[in-house]
């Protein structure tokens, strides 16, 4: 592109009040309409943020230095920007907006920074963990659609930490994937495997995001959980995980008891805001029938969960519905259609 041939719209003399219009004007030649819209709104909110907080030059330089450090610590296996997005609640917000879930379906949550693409496909019943110190756990799940029909052939990506609360990628000498696997649901929508009982762990907090949390008097811990990601054409991509409740005493009928609250201090203060009520589960025990069927000792720790996936079409309808409500709440008389605002005349 020859810069001399670009007809840049004229800007006005720069003032605190017209700088926003000027930036939007000079960006207006962008041919990607969605990008232009996102930049327009980003600049508007950024500028209003500075006007509202009366941001000083020193404060903005502190912010820029912080963002620089966030970038500098990133590597192939450490993604500090995802962590930053997570601890600011933006990751869970974006997922909830982009992948809304109707009542009755499994809710999504944040991806987190520890997913990798090298997990290997595993046959039913194999163990995804090779940590001898972990407490063995049998996991038996079903996968259905909103009408209760089993979904076959879904690719399920699963990952968890070892018994010390570390993902495999956090070890310098990592030779291959551990604590992660790929599974496929069978004709009954079932997938099952062996794992270890998850434990709470801190997000990496030796970098700029950790220092931010410390300054805010926030701890870096996440409650015990296991990650699941589901993919099948025609169904909305689902990233979720289940949180574990632990009971020291009592039977499984009292699962939602206050005992858990005493035993797990992180349930209501997850550093990355991932916990949702519908995703909390209890560790049960394999009865004689389950033990025989899945070849584990009776009383073996057991996790069962019924996942419900929604179709792309169901998600798309709900996304449009939610978009109208959200913009109305913001007092904007537009609705978003194909990523762009149009006047809302309904
Ligand atoms: Fe995690």
From TrEMBL:
GO terms for biological process: catechol-containing compound metabolic process. It holds the Pfam family Dioxygenase_N. It comes from the Eukaryota. GO terms for molecular function: catechol 1,2-dioxygenase activity; ferric iron binding. InterPro entries: 1_2-HQD/HQD (IPR039390), Catechol_dOase_N (IPR007535), Intradiol_dOase_C (IPR000627), Intradiol_dOase_core (IPR015889), Intradiol_RC_Dioxygenase (IPR050770). CDD domains: 1_2-HQD. Its cofactor is Fe(3+). Residues 129-244 form the Intradiol ring-cleavage dioxygenases domain. The keyword Metal-binding applies. Keywords: Dioxygenase, Iron, Metal-binding, Oxidoreductase. The keyword Ubl conjugation does not apply. Residues 32-105 form the Catechol dioxygenase N-terminal domain. SUPFAM superfamilies: Aromatic compound dioxygenase. PANTHER family: DIOXYGENASE, PUTATIVE (AFU_ORTHOLOGUE AFUA_2G02910)-RELATED, INTRADIOL RING-CLEAVAGE DIOXYGENASES DOMAIN-CONTAINING PROTEIN-RELATED. This is Catechol dioxygenase.
């Amino acid at each position: 592109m020859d810069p001399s041939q670009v007809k840049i719209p004229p800007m006005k003399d720069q003032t605190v009040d017209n700088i926003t219009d000027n930036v939007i004007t000079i960006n207006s030649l962008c041919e990607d309409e969605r990008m232009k819209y996102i930049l327009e709104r980003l600049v508007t909110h950024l500028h209003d943020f500075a006007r509202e907080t009366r941001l000083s030059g020193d404060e903005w330089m502190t912010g820029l230095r912080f963002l620089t450090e966030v970038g500098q610590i990133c590597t192939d296996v450490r993604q500090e920007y995802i962590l930053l997005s997570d601890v600011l609640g933006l990751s869970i917000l974006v997922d909830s907006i982009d992948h809304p879930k109707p009542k009755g379906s499994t809710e999504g949550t944040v991806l987190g920074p520890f997913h990798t693409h090298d997990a290997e496909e595993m046959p039913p019943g194999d163990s995804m963990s090779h940590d001898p110190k972990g407490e063995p756990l049998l996991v038996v799940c079903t996968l259905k659609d909103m009408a209760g029909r089993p979904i076959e052939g879904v690719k399920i990506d699963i990952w968890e930490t070892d018994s010390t609360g570390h993902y495999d990628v956090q070890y310098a000498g990592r030779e291959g994937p551990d604590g992660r696997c790929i599974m496929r649901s069978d004709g009954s929508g079932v997938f099952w495997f062996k794992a270890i009982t998850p434990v709470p762990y801190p997000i990496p907090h030796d970098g700029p995001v950790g220092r931010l949390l410390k300054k805010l008097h926030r701890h870096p811990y996440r409650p015990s959980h296991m990650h699941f990601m589901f993919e099948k054409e025609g169904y909305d991509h689902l990233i979720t995980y289940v949180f574990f409740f632990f009971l020291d005493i009592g039977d499984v009928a009292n699962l939602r008891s206050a005992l858990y609250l005493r035993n797990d201090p992180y349930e209501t203060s997850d550093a990355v805001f991932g916990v949702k009520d519908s995703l909390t589960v209890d560790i049960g025990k394999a009865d004689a029938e389950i033990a025989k069927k899945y070849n584990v000792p009776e009383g073996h720790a057991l996790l069962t969960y019924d996942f419900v996936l929604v179709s792309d079409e169901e998600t798309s309808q709900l996304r449009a519905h939610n978009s109208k409500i959200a913009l109305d709440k913001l007092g904007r008389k537009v609705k978003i259609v194909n990523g762009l605002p149009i006047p809302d005349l309904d």
